[in-house]
Amino acid sequence: MTQRTRTVRFVAAIAATAIVGSFALTRAAIANEIYVSNEKDDTVSVIDVGKLEVVRTFAVGMRPRGITFSPDQKYFFVCASDSDAIQVFDAATDKWLYDLPSGEDPEQFAISPDGKRLYVANEDNAVTTIVDLETRRVVKQVDVGVEPEGIAISPDNKVAVTTSETTNMAHLIDTTTFEVTDNILVDQRPRHAEFTSDGAKLWVSSEIGGTVSIIDMGKRKVEEKLTFQIPGLTDDVIQPVGMKMTRDDKTAFVALGPANRVAVIDIAKKKVMKYLLVGQRVWHLAFSADEKLLFTTNGVSNDVTVIDTTTLRPVKSMTVGRYPWGVALKRTN
From CA 44, how far away is CA 202, in angstroms rounded? Predict the structure, then answer.
């Protein structure tokens, strides 16, 4: 090897080290955390976004499913379904503070954009429970369809949505009067609801129907349905559940359950661009703060898959507890 070759390689090595170091510093600067509820273990696992590793696990109530943070990031909430409670924790210490009244068998919930109210789907008694977070009291229980599950609040805080698995409807609730204003029929077993950032459209996933219904909120009706076809898989295993959309409303990601895939959708074209292979029985999704990473909970393989949203490639899987279900981002800066 000549001296020139040694010098070139040395300079290249220094440059590569600088790039890696810069990347590590960037990742460290956005070292937020992802919280994952483990349904069978009655625990929550916490993933460091910068390190991409599980850094701690702690006990919560029985059969935790839905999990979310308050808008100010001071608290996080866990649906302890078999404890019939919404548990409230201090986000800085992970310490349990108190339980909120929730109705029977809470599964998913949503916090209003102003952080004042909690809307809970109660699967066993066909109601949506609305809790005032300041007084910690139930404001109203609204009758909806049979086996309510999905919950979403419009960006303008005017409409709450509950999806009912057996009635196969999205129920729109006026957040001022607490009255159901519309019952919109979708496909079988609707699981999850997501608004676009402008509130103009509502997406509802139907697990058994195998579709995502796109609802025009101005007209209050389904304008289009997305379907999914994966070579080598039968339609019955393609079961849309959790969804996430980028803030710019350009791309949507849909978890397809036992298909073990996440569908990547061009929102403007309403077209599937790609299917990404993840763990077994993918449930729900959460972005990192910069939306460069997407985390999926894989219920049967007991792990979380990390997807690079720029390259649209899975980059890592991490073992968590048994039956990971819910997932939420904690911003630490």
Answer: 29
